[in-house]
Structures are given as C-alpha cells and as structure tokens.
Design a protein that fits this description.
Length: about 425
C-alpha cells in the first residue's frame, strides 16, 4: 500500500509506531526540570491524534528549556474531559489549557472561566475564518481551532470496482450504490454508528437546521426524514448499524462498503483496512458535495490559573497554530489543517503527492456545518437526541415518536424542568 507510506512514516515520526509511552516519559522528564508547567487536558485516548499532540509538546518543550513546559494529560474521551473540567471548577484545580467543543466553550463562559484570546494569537490572520468564527462569543475569541475534523465519505475501493460502481456524488446516487452492492453481496454495506454525528450528515443534507429563531428543534420534518432514511436503510438491507466501537474497529465483521465518518478517523481506518481504502467528499447534490459535520476541538485557556502558566499556554497556542505544526499534525491524523498556509509546507506537499486522497479533507472543509454552540448541546446530542436516534434505529420507536419525545425533553431541559 504505497499510499500509506508517508502517513505511516509520519506516524512513526509522531512516535506512534513503537513508543507512545516514550513521548509521555520524555514530557514528564522535561516538565520535572521546568520552572513553570502548563497542563493541557485533552480527550485523546491514544492513536495518531494523541501521539501527534504529544510530539508537538515534546518539540515545544525542547525550544523552551529553562522557561516552561506543556504537559498534555489525557482525561479519557471527550465527554470524560468535559466532566472532569466541570469537576475541576468546583475543586479549583483547573489546568492552564484544555480541548473544548464550541458548546463546551459556551458552557464554561457561563462560569466566566475563560481568557479571551484576542490579541494573543500570532497567526490568527492565517487561520481558516470558518473555524475561527465558531469560537467567537459576544465578539470575543475564546478558542484556538486546533484539531478540527470534518466528515468525509470512506469507501472500499476493491468492493466498488468488483461491482462496477462509481463513487457516488449525490444522496440518491449514494443510496442507489449502497443498495446495488448490498443486494449483490447479500448484506448491508453502508455502515453507520446510530448517533448524532452520523445522523447530522443526513439531516444537514436534507435541509435540516437545529435552530429555528433561536429555538432548538430536533423533530422538524427534515429531522424525521433523515432518521426515517436510516431506519428504512436498515429495513431494506443497505445500512448496517454499528452499535459497539468505532466503524474501523468492526472491519472484518462483514462486508464493508461505505461510511460517513470523521476525517480524524483516517489513520485508524488506514491501519485497520485490509482492502484499498478510499476517501471522497460526501455525496451531496449534482452541484456540490454534501455538507459534513465539523467535530474535533479547540484549545482554550482558563482564567483562574497562574499568569506564568497562562504565558506558557499562549506560547504553545502560537506554536501549534503555525503552518509547520499544522501541516505535520494534519498529515499525521486527518484533521483539517486550520492554518491556511500549512498546505504550502513541504511536509504537507510531500504527503499530498504520495497520498492525493488527503486533498479530500481540505476540499470537504469548504462544505461543513456545525451543531449549535449552546451550553446544553452536549447533553442534548448524547442523552436526548442520540438516545432517540438509537431507539429508532433499533426499532424501539418510530422516528417521529422518538424525535417528538426528544423535543419534549429538550424543551424541559432548556426551561429548567429537568436537569
Ligand atoms: C467525535 C464527538 C462530541 C461533541 C461531537 C460534543 C463531546 C462525537 C464523535 C462522539 O476528533 P474527532 O473528529 O474524531 C475522534 C478522533 C480522536 O479520538 O479520532 C476518531 N477515532 C478514534 C478512534 C477510532 O478507532 N476511530 C476514530 O475514528 C474519534 O472519533 O471527534 C469525533 C465520536 C464520539 O466521540 O463518539 O466527536 N463529539 N460533538 N463529543 N463530548 N461533545 O459536543
């Protein structure tokens, strides 16, 4: 697999191949000697994202010997991270920096816990304005877009060739392709996790929006239609719900054809695939690709920590948002390079030359959409909407029933009737 060679070399460089533990040990030793330690709490459990982040910290710390060091600390997954940050508000042991989704920022701002980043970011003018605007609240900047992903279409090139099927460009074409191959193979080839992320792809591309005049609506006609499409896909035998683990962790358990998943899964997919893995922009309309959900996080700086730590944090933000760091980080992981100049860096140019597929991630970032950046959204997307999607896909309720129930719960939550 020639395509994978640069990526695998980068992964090795990022320390993944042999020595993930080692990067952590190096950082530990670096920080033992440093006069100031700025912690960065994150939600990467492992893999290329964690290795690439730790590698950046090692490099930063080397440049800052005698001045200060950054120590990334994994808190589990993303939701564990926000839970631990909320606990740290109460305990008063916040780190200098953390990863945060846009809705997490909105929540932390209710506690007035964040430092604005205005005037502190050296490369702000080079950063993708689409991601930057998403972290502006009341005209102030509260996050540095760092590991931002976008959904893309992953597919099994071998399977498409076997059936003489082209990579689909439209929603209808996508469903037709999945149906055709599934019928021939005798099992569903579009694999999806029945969660808010996958659902968002179908929802956005069927014209759905969650905010209607400032009101959160999860049971709109477009929402019902999107969920019905998935439910029908399961009934008709072209869509397979993956209820445990990531899709890449399920390869081998059937015939995989397509998925609509985070670009940050790229390194995981590549490593797990025993077939020729393809990626493409999402099926949309005849005119343009489909819209993909933006996920991944921003880096934030907490207000209530030592100013010396904050100073190190700002230096780190500048380091990781530079074009070279972004080129390395994006090439190793599949996250979107948020510094627009990263594509001119030799490391990303080389990566693109050997793996032209990576251009897909850059192109797809022009067709992307966010979920609402309201403080309650994390709870809504997992505990209310996510539950409704799973229930409908597993046949425990119709899409309309599930979403109507979810709407009532959303209203109760937002009006303070439930917590
Ligand atoms: C994940 C989660 C949120 C919110 C979206 C929110 C909280 C979704 C989705 C729920 O950085 P992204 O693009 O991708 C992750 C990256 C690092 O872990 O690699 C992906 N990964 C990891 C292991 C693997 O085997 N395969 C693989 O693809 C991983 O998904 O973030 C996408 C998945 C989820 O975590 O189940 O973002 N998400 N909005 N989480 N807490 N809050 O508002």
């Amino acid at each position: 697999m020639k395509k994978a060679t640069v990526l695998l070399a980068l992964l090795a460089l990022a320390g993944l191949a042999s020595a993930q533990q080692k990067a952590e040990d190096v950082i530990k030793a670096q920080c033992e000697k440093a006069p100031v330690v700025a912690e960065l709490w994150h939600g990467f459990r492992g893999g290329a994202p964690r290795a690439a982040l730790e590698n950046l910290a090692v490099e930063f710390n080397k440049m800052n010997v005698g001045k200060g060091c950054v120590r990334p600390i994994s808190q589990g997954g993303y939701r564990d991270l926000s839970t631990k940050i909320k606990a740290a508000f109460a305990a008063g042991n916040l780190p200098a920096m953390a990863q945060a989704f846009e809705n997490n920022i909105a929540l932390y701002l209710e506690a007035d816990a964040l430092l604005p980043l205005d005037g502190r970011l050296e490369y702000l003018g080079d950063l993708n304005p689409f991601f930057v605007n998403a972290v502006k609240f009341n005209g102030k900047l509260y996050g540095l877009p760092f590991n931002k992903s976008v959904q893309v279409l992953y597919f099994n090139r071998d399977l498409l060739s076997k059936h003489g099927v082209d990579v689909p460009g439209t929603l209808d074409g996508f469903i037709a392709a999945a149906k055709k191959i599934s019928e021939a193979e005798g099992e569903p080839v579009y694999w999806f996790r029945p969660d808010t992320s996958t659902y968002a792809y179908w929802f956005f591309n069927m014209g759905g929006t969650y905010l209607h005049d400032g009101k959160v609506v999860v049971n709109s006609p477009e929402g019902v239609k999107a969920l019905e499409t998935l439910v029908q896909g399961v009934k008709d035998g072209w869509a397979k719900p993956i209820t445990s683990g990531y899709i890449n962790q399920n390869f081998g358990k059937g015939v995989y054809g397509f998925s609509t998943d985070s670009s940050a899964g790229y390194s995981y997919y590549l490593r797990a695939a025993k077939f020729d893995l393809g990626i493409a922009t999402l099926p949309g309309t005849a005119e343009h690709p489909g819209y993909g959900l933006v996920q991944g996080t921003n880096l934030i700086v907490f207000k209530d920590v030592d100013v010396k730590q904050q100073a190190v944090a700002f230096q780190f933000l500048n380091f990781v948002s530079g074009s070279k760091a972004q080129a390395l980080f994006a090439a190793a992981t599949g996250y979107v390079p948020i510094n627009l100049k990263a594509v001119d860096e030799p490391v990303l140019q080389d990566h693109l030359m050997e793996n032209p597929d990576f251009q897909v991630v850059i192109d797809q970032a022009n067709y992307a959409a966010f979920e609402p950046a309201i403080p309650e959204w994390e709870q809504i997307r997992f505990d209310i909407l996510g539950q409704a999607i799973t229930e409908a896909v597993l046949g425990k309720a119709t899409p309309k029933e599930a979403l109507d129930k979810a709407q009532k719960q959303v209203e109760d939550l937002l009006s303070g009737k439930i917590r």
